[in-house]
Amino acid sequence: MNFTFYLDTPAFQSLALHLMLAVEIPVHMFGAFCILFRTPGSMRSVKWGMLNLHIWSMGLDLGVSLLTIPYILYPALAGFTLGVLNDFDVPLPYQAYLLAVLIGLLGVSIVTILENRYSVMFVQYHWWRHFRVPFLIFNYIFALVYFLPAYYYIPEQTSALKEVFEMLPELPQDIYNAHVFVLATDFRYVVLPVFVMSTLLVMESGCFIILIYSNMNERTKQLSLSRNTIRMQRKFLRALNIQTCIPLLILMLPMGYLVASRILNLYFQSANNLCFIIIAVHGLSSTFIMLYIHAPYRDAMVHYCYINCRMTFMWWPKS
């Protein structure tokens, strides 16, 4: 197999992610600015949770698009990186661990913002207020260590590379000349930690969403809240759910392909490259959705776009 298409090449992977980086940085910076300086008093209780989610979302984008730029030879758990960490001679096992931790922390930040909503609305005098801090600490520690089994069982590289090249016998010569790193030859050491972490986060998120909506009607009746207040609370919760769920749905596309690729033992390098480009799009889409779906941020975005367009028009050369 030679590099028949430009999409297959490391050059395409690097160029595509660098171009995305040029968009991601200003968008993420504007998103952080809106959270810090355009969050109204009515959203004060969720401000720092949103900033936490935004930071880890931005961190994953920068981790993929700048720091590592993975070039993966899936369905083998092998590949190499093209990012700036290579310029600092950071070992590839550390880079793989960094990406895994960033993904875990992003998931925990979603749970954190849902737990914050539940706590603010319902548990001021509930037993949960005594356990929420240990619960959050456990989640963040687990996100930092869940990938340790995969890291600990990284195989001896000479024999592992031989196994990978037997699995993918017709790779381009450029791949054989690259410094290919094999994360695992036994998928259990990678799949099981990721599965446990993903299951935990999904269960926790689902529990908080159910608790919030199941308690909302009872709480509003007890406090005799007005219809307008109820409507605003529901609207805000719906916005948070959309902000967190749509980016996760975007991630399901590359994850679904990677699972199918492993089951069917398919190797398409262009598809592997596109998977990581879609993963990098996740954070960008999350920020765009946040800016659009929350009215104060949307108004700020429209305001600054209007000013920029007006300044551009004023300085445009007259014919």
TrEMBL record:
Keywords: Membrane, Transmembrane, Transmembrane helix. The chain crosses the membrane at residues 15-37, 49-74, 94-114, 135-154, 190-215, 236-259, 271-293. This is G-protein coupled receptors family 1 profile domain-containing protein. It comes from Caenorhabditis latens. The lineage of its organism: Eukaryota, Metazoa, Ecdysozoa, Nematoda, Chromadorea.
